[in-house]
Design brief:
heterodimer; A: MetI-like fold; about 0% strand; B: alpha/beta; about 40% helix; disordered C terminus
Amino acid sequence: MKINRSIAALLFGLALIASAVVLAPGASYSRQERDATFAAASRQHMAGTDELGRDRLVRVSAAFLLSLAGAIMASALTTAAAAGVGTLAAFGPASVGWLAMLVCDVFLALPWLFLLMMVRSALPLTTSPANSAAITFLVLAALGWPACARAVYRGALHLKSAEWMLHARASGLRSAQIVRHAIPNFFPLLLPQFLVCIPAFVIAEANLGALGLGVGEPLPSWGGMLLELDNSAMLMQTRWVYFPVALLIVVLLLLDAIAVEVE
Amino acid sequence: MSDETLLRVNLEAAYPGKSILRDVRFELQRGEILGLAGTSGAGKSTLVLSLLGLLPWRGGRVSGEVELDGENLLALNERRLRELRGCKVALIPQSPMTALNSAISLQSHFVEAWKAHEDSGRAALDRRMQDLLAEVQLPSDRGFLRRRPSQISVGQAQRVLIALALLHRPQLIVADEPTSALDPVTQAQIVDLLRRLNRRHGTALLYVSHDLVSVLRLCDRVAILDSGAIVECLPVDALHKASHESTRALLETLPVPLDVLLSFRNSAAPEPLHLVIAE
């Protein structure tokens, strides 16, 4: 199980460039230049500007960083929750395991996009942009754990009947010692789950954003920028409107490649 | 129960809805090697787990007595049982590769097993490990001990498990088919190692196996387990007097006549190789 170094390096490089763009002096994702809307690429705006005259490169870079950081944190949360539920279900009484997996199945059977929309729209729309970003990713994390928990449960069941565990008991090891030694055995199980969830959350956030339910303006997000593609008149103005979606595809491919490699 | 009796067993064991052991009765003397032979499915592994009080961890239930040194293990609570396991009675498991935790180093296996019963520090463990690893003929350098179980051979893993079993100088070692996963040469080496350890330290050994040849080579007495009951128990030298049909069936599977195997065992015990060459 090894993460492909070159793919990870490529993604890291992209993140570095994006950070440089966002942190460059004078860069702002929200400053509007009303006399330069839909400007073409220029020295000042290397990927042109959007309909409000905001620098597209800075916005795409910020959206990339925000979505990646949010997705990673949400994925970490969801994996941790799944690890908790899965382990408890496997090592607890049989009835607890049965109940936990029933809840997972119910969650998995729900049409999650509609559920996301429902949950997100039930939450206040007038929150600050930062809060809206936090809420979006928290909701993703809260709805993402069941599939992961099922996988952890299977793995933990396998671990529970592992020969080494019985041998550890036969050697008189205390339960705490055995649990401590079981933890490293979970990493090969959790790492792929963690990595698979990241691109899923990036695209889920983009979906929500494109429906206007994601990260609030003026914070940039993939979803918000995809909304630009809604208006065919704008598509004629400049090709740079395709830049966000192109970068989104590249990022998703890279994230998927990392996850697949590890699996 | 005489002073010489180390283990006295009289138990029944079952999994939910299925009785596995119904009449298992035998005794083991101090320093003795008792072979427990039986076909697959006779209940050998269930018996091993029952003796160590581990059957509940596999969902089974044991009743009766397992009297080790005058103490009935089946009447003890889990806390007290844990204190005895690994310390007074140890297990050499069947499949060396899966019995070691693949996520931690060999060194960690020893450290944890040591900490389970000993408060004395690392220096004492290091000394004990040096002795043990030399005894089971394994390297004891840091490089070797840092390896994971997947980085050593099956034979080496089995030696590690034997060393782990010996760590706290138990009175009794239960070996559950310790050679079944090994090639014939390694099998012979492990059997010889077990015999040497028994002679040197006087550790009693319950050697559970379906391989009658290794049982004959190693054991003083042999008990035959058939469909959940001990049907016969007699000294290895007296095996030709066996009367039960399942004992006879097992004897018929021997590749060489019994008396030939026994004469080889009796005469060749100290230096088998020289005698073979001389002949």
